[in-house]
Design brief:
alpha/beta; Rossmann fold; 7-stranded mixed sheet; binds adenosine-5'-diphosphate; 2 domains; binds magnesium ion; 6-stranded antiparallel sheet; P-type Zn(2+) transporter; about 45% helix
């Protein structure tokens, strides 16, 4: 019978690390036409490493100041910059009055030396002039698939830090499986277009980049108007996107947070789990009818 088929489908998912909160989510999964992925922590491991440092003045002083600003941030880029400052044994200056984060753009704090911003090159170019050779350097780093952040003090650019985040080992396979099931895939990211394209072309997915949080939601709504869409995110800072999609899937890592924010969680962080969810749903639905 119907409830029995659904119950057995849910149980089968759980045994494979695919936590599905209820029958409605299980049914929707089989009907999705689009799978939209967050980049950082979803298609990538989410543990970026600093690869290049371009200091216009003192590079270590710039890293220390950037780390000071990132102290209040839980963003993967911030954690990586703090880790780099610690690895170099730098003394991290004190930030006064905490930090102000602007999602999708960057973060700012007041240090003894002045207001320091760590943020996207797009944001830095909006704030003021950027030297031509630095701009060229940023483009080259981004074309290598690195994410670049600009460190500024007041209007003065101190330099840039490039970071690389590795794709998940099963990302290519996971996307191929979805394509095999006839599902369109897209990566939605706030990162710049060159970095996003470099990563996306390696993975075999279309990329929509430079999306501020509201633009991510608008993109999901636009796909949803065409047919059911799943959003796959990290479940922590992607809650609105997960909620806007027809079904939200969190890369869970086995945490409780994931299941609170999404209807579905991939406990083992497997990208291939998304296609398995679709297949499980389709098998369950065909048992009903
Ligand atoms: P994603 O879509 O990969 O999750 P976000 O929307 O979080 O990216 O961020 C987009 C861009 O904004 C980053 O690539 C970075 O340039 C900048 N940014 C956001 N938060 C921070 C931060 N805490 N420190 C430095 N840069 C940041
Ligand atoms: Mg994010």
């Amino acid at each position: 019978s119907t409830p029995a088929a659904i119950a057995s489908g849910l149980a089968r998912g759980t045994r494979n690390g695919l936590l599905i909160k209820g029958g409605a989510a299980l049914e929707t999964l089989g009907k999705i036409q689009t799978a939209a992925f967050d980049k950082t922590g979803t298609l990538t491991v989410g543990n970026p490493q600093v690869t290049d440092v371009v200091g216009l003045e003192d590079a270590n002083e710039m890293i220390a100041k950037a780390a000071a600003v990132e102290q209040g941030s839980s963003h993967p880029l911030g954690l990586a910059i703090i880790a780099e400052a610690e690895r170099l044994g730098l003394e991290i200056p004190r930030a006064f009055g905490g930090s102000i984060a602007t999602p999708g753009k960057g973060v700012m704090s007041r240090l003894k030396s002045g207001f320091v911003t760590v943020g996207s090159p797009i944001q830095a170019r909006e704030q003021g002039e950027m030297p031509e050779d630095l701009s060229a350097r940023i483009l080259a780093l981004e074309n290598e698939g690195k994410t670049v952040v600009v460190v500024s003090e007041g209007k003065r650019i101190l330099g840039v830090i490039a970071l690389r985040d590795e794709p998940r080992a099963d990302a290519v396979e996971g996307l191929k499986k979805l394509h095999g099931l006839g599902i369109k895939t897209v990566m939605l990211t706030g990162d710049n277009a060159r970095t996003a394209t470099a990563i996306a072309s390696k993975l075999g997915i279309e990329a929509k980049a430079e999306l501020l949080p509201d633009a991510k939601l608008a993109a999901i709504s636009a796909y949803k108007a065409e047919g059911p869409i799943a959003m796959i995110g990290d479940g922590i800072n992607d809650a609105p996107a997960l909620a806007t999609a027809s079904v939200g899937i969190a890369m869970g890592g086995g945490t409780d947070v994931a299941l609170e924010t999404a209807e579905v969680a991939l406990l083992k962080n497997r990208v291939t789990g998304v296609a398995e969810l679709v297949s499980l749903s389709r098998a369950t639905l065909s048992n009903i009818w």
